[in-house]
Amino acid sequence: MTALKRLGLGTVQFGYNYGVSNSVGRPGESEISAILEYAAASGIVYLDTAAAYGEAEALIGRLSPASHRFRIVTKLAPIAAERLEPRHVGEIVGSIEASCDRLKSDRLYAVLVHEARDLAKPGAEFIVEALEDARRQGLVERIGASVYDADGLSLVTKRFGPQLVQLPLNVLDRRLARDGWLACLKATGAEIHARSIFLQGLLLMRPSDLPAFFEPMRKPLADMQARFARSNASALAAALAFVLRQEHIDVLVVGVNRLSELIEVEAAMAAAEGIEIDFGPALSIAPQFLNPALWPSRV
Questions:
Q1: How many other C-beta atoms are found inside a 10 Å radius of the C-beta of residue 123?
Q2: How many Å apart are CA 210 and CA 20, to the nearest integer?
Q3: Domain-wise residue ranges, the chain
Q4: DSSP at 282
Q5: 192, 185 contact by CB (below 8 A)
Q6: Which class is domain 4-294?
Q7: Nearest CA-CA partner of 174 in 193, 147, 158, 197
Q8: Is the pTM of this model over 0.90?
């Protein structure tokens, strides 16, 4: 599979001002349309979205080119109930149907549990039942989960056998690779999509520009970027190269705010294939700096 065929387009930016390095804000509809047109024409296969990403699903459905062949991965709408009951099966299947309607798609490539902790709730078996029902009805090809860490992944795999898992992986966050989870998932036949490849753009920032919360990340980031520079590699291409070289990763999910950024990523993907670089040993970095869900609301 060529590098570009392994690229997935993340779309949380379509619904929100997203990303610690995002200085341009949420893209407008004309920009989103241009991004989707270019992605389809360039052979990008995967789109990653979620019911919780504001208007993202509706914008994808309305603005994607009519002839697109995207494989769309979405995530379940938030589950507010603290205890699930049989009635939730129908409600969850209904929410998947609503995603299909917004995305203007009769069949989705995958639907994921958005919050792994929902699978710890009493009655969580009804979430799994709903996913299985949606697959039997032909609404979705694969079912799975989005996770942040090993605890979440362990919870998911105890509840069901995910056919697709989306998880964080980057040159500073190698936890799931180091702990053997990628190999274990691949052994079950699961498809693995890596996200947080740039850690919301943090890995591409100058260390001096990091918000105060990330003070402990400045030295690791500076050291990493110096290592890239010694190999004459841009931070963008090197960050992509690290994930591309993980044998168990099927898709790299990357979000952009502008068409120009997607074009830059496309060029960097091609460059990444030829980079010779020593990424160095995995570092021990506190989880609160690697998991955006643990970051302050304003950083």
A1: 14
A2: 9
A3: 4-294
A4: P
A5: yes
A6: alpha beta
A7: 197
A8: yes
**Contact predicate 58/99, CB 8 Å:** no
Contact assessment for residue 152 and residue 116, using Cβ atoms and an 8 Å cutoff: yes
CA angle 193, 194, 198 (to 5 degrees): 150
| pLDDT score at 298 | 63
**Residues 6+ away with beta carbon under 8 Å from 160:** 128, 131, 143
Question: pLDDT tens, 12-37?
Answer: 999 886 555 545 578 999 999 999 99
Token pair 């591309």 in the structure block, residue:
244
The DSSP element (H or E) to which 251 belongs, if any, is: strand 251-255
Three-state DSSP at 7 gives strand
pLDDT band at 4 (very low <50, low <70, confident <90, very high): confident
Distance CA 84, CA 149 (A): 24
H helices of the chain, in order, are 12-15, 29-42, 56-63, 87-103, 125-136, 150-159, 175-178, 181-187, 218-230, 235-244, 259-272, 287-290
Q: What is the DSSP string of 56-105?
A: HHHHHHHHS-TT---EEEEEPPP---SS--THHHHHHHHHHHHHHHHHT-
